[in-house]
Amino acid sequence: MAESEHAMPGRAAPVLYYHPLSSYCHKLLIAIDELGADVTLQVINPGDPDERAAHVARWPTGKIPLLMDAGQPVPESSIMIEHLQRHHAAAGRQLIPDDAAAALAVRLWDRLFDLYVMTPMQAFTADLLRPEDQRRPASVAQARSALVSAYDFIDQHLQARAGAGQAWACGDAFSLADCAAAPALFYAVAYEPLAPAHAHLAAYVDRLMDRPSVARTVDQARPWFQYFPGRAGLARRFFDPAST
């Protein structure tokens, strides 16, 4: 990929520690693709004790994804993406606009997708990973209600954007907000499908899935979908149980 105009000559590419099935890792992979950033990808298995210990030594929370740049950890997905834009993006590539007001809107919708779609979606996954006798139906019901509420306000927002002729979450340009939206919605609709009333959101999901950076990220995850607890809800074009 093209070298960023901000990159230092001879500087080693940053390393992204990730897992191909992780929704937050997908957010980073989409952004790396969009930014044309030169990043070394390193898959880790958090379930392996030795790999887990090595990863905790890099960053105490042990969370993925994690970007290491010049030996320094850069944690948290939104911060990683902004760091990559500042220091490693190809010329002319950006996911956060220069205009302060527009940048604030992008950061807002990034947080909304993370907090109100990604978080309740992960509650479904967490519950399915528990032994059956330890599952929490009340927590799942709460997560389902939160997702439906999020679908409602996102659909209203997208309806307004469509009225202005804008295809993406924050306008005409694909942004950080869309990087967050794609994996959050991809996995969320496997647990709680969109209702007919969410037509604008459904069209947006289709646009996201057709975006080359998103399509490539989904493709690299296909071998792993058999391990996704909500795989039964994935569209057959992404995962066919008969193929496993």
Written description of the protein model:
Residues 1-8 have low confidence and may be disordered. Helix 1 runs antiparallel to helix 6, helix 1 (23-35) crosses helix 8 (212-221) and helix 4 runs antiparallel to helix 5 (137-163). A 4-stranded mixed beta sheet has the order 2-1-3-4. It has helices at 23-35, 49-58, 77-87, 100-128, 137-163, 176-191, 199-210, 212-221; strands at 15-18, 40-43, 66-69, 72-74. The chain is of the alpha+beta class and 244 residues long. The protein is built from 8 helices and 4 strands. The protein has 2 domains: 15-87, Glutaredoxin, CATH 3.40.30.10; 100-211, Glutathione S-transferase Yfyf (Class Pi), Chain A, domain 2 (Up-down Bundle).
